[in-house]
Design goal:
- The protein contains 25 helices and 16 strands.
- The protein is α+β, with helices and mostly antiparallel strands and about 725 residues long.
- A hairpin with a 6-residue loop joins strand 1 and strand 2 (about 80-85).
- This is TM1802 family CRISPR-associated protein.
- It comes from Halosegnis marinus.
């Protein structure tokens, strides 16, 4: 990839702040032109020589230039020859090539490239005839060139070519010449004209003129002006009826802000704006479009030139094309060149851009901004699903840091034997929870590329993504720092858990739930959660010392008037006389720590009761599976995604009864199995939970925290064993 020419960057860099999508597109166009290095001169922006790169001879693969040689020095135009020879890279500049946007069969310039799949001699003759007749408005098909021929002092050249192309035997003449030299294969062909002319007859001297000679289109001002006229016609008439007046007038360009001739139907590579779908723009008059979407010719050309770079900054996720366009608001020439290095690399996400930016321009990387757009392409009808014009790495990085804090056992007990879940920290295949999830940079990529949201939320629109896709809603909130209503988040979590649950195969969506738990706590630590129903305890981060985000808070009294506890007040169990730690004591300690550290549970007795009911169910189900060899456990019979307040009220006495029965069966010294859980459950909701109509918690809240409790209960025994092993005194060294 060539380095951009600083002089060309300076020439076309938009003045003032880069403050809109169109200005970013123009900036990318300036970089594309500076990279090509051929945007000098009156027609420099119009040329697209790079579009001939696949048509020049490369190694043994020969591509051909078919040239109609025309003599305009006599009384009438004459076709003197047709040459068919390999097209060399050194020939390209003299051809004055200007490509119409891909997908169209007509080029702006008189030089034309044929089919990519190759052309035979008959097709080549057709190309050449159209150069002489159609392009020159011989049949009235190109009125813009016809007007140019009338107004330009050297317009007679075009008129003479049209006259030659209109001769009855021109096709026969072309065929005779072409068939003499055309190769046996069907190569890629570029067709053009070369004109023998006396420079003294021209108002604008040909480039490289030296006496009477032959000149190619790029050397003749009038043919270049014809190419430009054709382009400007497209800028003002695209998708207009022939009877419509052109959409052009004098006004301020929306990109440069300068007064100029502006156009209303300029090509937008992103296709966000097109009068073809006028129904999207109420009261739009196509011919007057230049008044509301005013683009000067220079800006339109730059936007078109930058299309390839814009495409390089995009990727597809979940059926949506997501553009992440890096830019600097205050962009100097040096900044623009740094930006060129960035967008021509491999990155397509904010995380990767930021990493590369730190290597390429560490002093400026914090000034990077990103214009993020998500679009759905419905057979060419582009629908913008979301658009964020000024995203930085601040919020994604903050969320990523909060996540790593949550799952790191040195800064949180959420996935630790001290109080939390077993998690999946030993399995590197589970992203967000394994070793990779503990690295902020890894999580930064997960946040910005959408996987952090896609792995926890409902996925209802895989085939037809819509603007309210919950995964994109959360991703955009994480990118921009928008407040996230915790009630909606819990609702989406529960919907995803239901999708993940397969009772026939003992699948409860445990991995997804673990990530949801980590994500919920991370968002609270990052300060992004809000409650629309006043339940602020749901948005409060865990009461843990957190040196990274400094969220240490003093313990507060429980909402139900209980005694506040904090980490130091929960004493670690003392060993028994034989030096062992009792598992029941360790379970009790862990449970107390887990609840106390989380205001969502500690400060709301009803939610704490829901959680504890889930814990007890999880513990009993684990006992049923491990000790009673039952295939269908309580967990299968009462899945979290079906739980309601009424069902919970009916479940409560069943859990107490089974706990008592199993204690008797196990000859336990206690009247209840897992009495530490039952005591706290009764403390939270009394001997009987609220009746159906008295539950204050929304059903999504009940289901999610019941699921959290169930998973916690399933882990409780194994985590207690692990905690005991961690605190078991080491064997004395053998002095012998």
């Amino acid at each position: 990839m060539a380095e951009p020419d600083p002089d060309i960057v300076e020439q076309y860099l938009p003045d003032g702040p880069i403050s809109s999508l169109r200005r970013i597109q123009a900036l990318y166009g300036a970089l594309a032109e500076a990279e090509a290095g051929d945007a000098d001169g009156e027609f420099g922006l119009y040329y697209t020589p790079g579009d001939l790169s696949g048509y020049v001879t490369q190694g043994e693969d020969t591509r051909y230039l078919a040239t109609a040689h025309v003599d305009l020095t006599g009384e009438s135009p004459e076709l003197t020859d047709v040459s068919v020879r390999p097209l060399q890279p050194s020939d390209v500049d003299m051809l004055g090539y200007a490509r119409y946007p891909p997908g169209r069969g007509i080029d702006h310039s008189i030089t034309h490239r044929g089919a990519k799949g190759g052309s035979d001699s008959e097709q080549t003759v057709g190309y050449l005839k159209q150069r002489l007749y159609r392009w020159t408005n011989g049949g009235g098909a190109e009125p813009a060139i016809g007007e140019l021929a009338d107004e330009h002092p050297d317009g007679w050249v075009i008129t003479q070519l049209a006259a030659l192309g209109g001769k009855d035997d021109i096709e026969e003449q072309l065929t005779q010449h072409v068939e003499q030299e055309f190769p046996a294969t069907e190569p890629r062909v570029t067709a053009t004209v070369a004109i023998t002319i006396d420079p003294g007859e021209l108002e604008h001297a040909p480039e490289g003129a030296s006496g009477v000679g032959e000149f190619y289109p790029g050397q003749l001002h009038v043919l270049n002006a014809g190419m430009r006229a054709r382009k400007l016609e497209k800028l003002s008439r695209k998708n207009l009826e022939d009877s419509d007046p052109p959409s052009r007038g004098q006004g301020a360009c929306m990109v440069t802000g300068k007064e100029a001739e502006v156009f209303g139907t300029a090509q937008d590579p992103l296709a966000f704006y097109t009068v073809q779908h006028a129904e999207k723009f109420p009261h739009l008059s196509k011919s007057d479009a230049w008044r509301s979407h005013s683009i000067s010719a220079e800006a339109a050309l730059l936007i078109q030139s930058g299309g390839a770079f814009v495409d390089e900054c995009s990727r597809t996720r979940g059926g949506i094309r997501v553009y992440t366009l890096p830019y600097f608001v205050d962009c100097s020439v040096d900044d623009a060149i740094d930006l060129h290095r960035l967008i021509t690399g491999d990155a397509t996400s904010i995380g990767d851009y930021h990493d590369q930016g730190e290597e390429l321009f560490p002093d400026a990387v914090e000034r990077l901004r990103f214009y993020v757009i998500g679009v759905r392409n419905d057979s060419g009808d582009i629908n913008v699903l979301f658009e964020e014009p000024s995203v930085t790495a601040y919020w994604p990085r903050r969320v990523a840091q909060a996540h790593t804090t949550t799952i790191n056992t040195e800064t949180s007990t959420t996935f630790d034997s001290t109080a939390g879940f077993a998690g999946l920290r030993g399995d590197s295949s589970f992203r967000h929870l394994g070793q990779a999830g503990r690295h902020p940079n890894t999580m930064l990529r997960a946040v910005v590329d959408g996987t952090y949201a896609r792995d926890t939320l409902e996925r209802p629109f895989e085939e037809a993504p819509v603007s309210d896709d919950p995964r994109e809603w959360l991703t955009q909130s994480l990118l921009t720092g928008q407040e996230i209503p915790v009630e909606r988040l819990l609702s989406e979590y529960v919907a995803r858990l239901e999708d993940e649950t397969d009772l026939a195969n003992d699948q409860y969506g445990t991995y997804v739930l673990y990530v949801q738990i980590a994500q919920l706590e991370a968002l609270a630590r990052a300060g992004l959660l809000v409650s629309q129903t006043g339940q602020t305890e749901l948005t409060t981060p865990p009461r843990m010392h957190d040196s990274t985000t400094d969220t240490t808070e003093p313990p507060t009294a429980f909402a139900d008037g209980g005694t506040p506890t904090d980490q130091p007040s929960i004493a670690f169990p003392e060993p028994t006389d034989d030096g062992e730690l009792k598992l029941s004591s360790l379970r009790e300690y862990r449970l107390a720590r887990f609840i106390d550290e989380r205001p969502a549970l500690a400060d709301n007795p009803e939610r704490r009761g829901v959680f504890l009911a889930g814990v007890l169910l999880g513990q009993l189900a684990h006992h049923q599976r491990r000790n009673r060899d039952m295939n269908q456990t309580l967990r299968d019979m009462h899945p979290a995604h079906r739980m309601t307040g009424a069902r919970l009220s009916r479940l409560f006495p069943e859990l107490i009864s089974k706990s008592s029965a199993y204690a008797t069966e196990m000859k336990s010294s206690s009247t209840q199995l897992f009495s530490e859980t039952i005591e706290r459950l009764i403390d939270a909701v009394g001997d009987h939970p609220p009746s159906e109509r008295d539950w204050a918690l929304p059903v999504e809240d009940i289901r999610f925290h019941f699921a959290v409790g169930t998973a916690y209960g399933a882990d409780a025994q194994s985590q207690a064993y692990e905690l005991r092993d961690e605190h078991r005194p080491s064997e004395p060294a053998d002095d012998a």
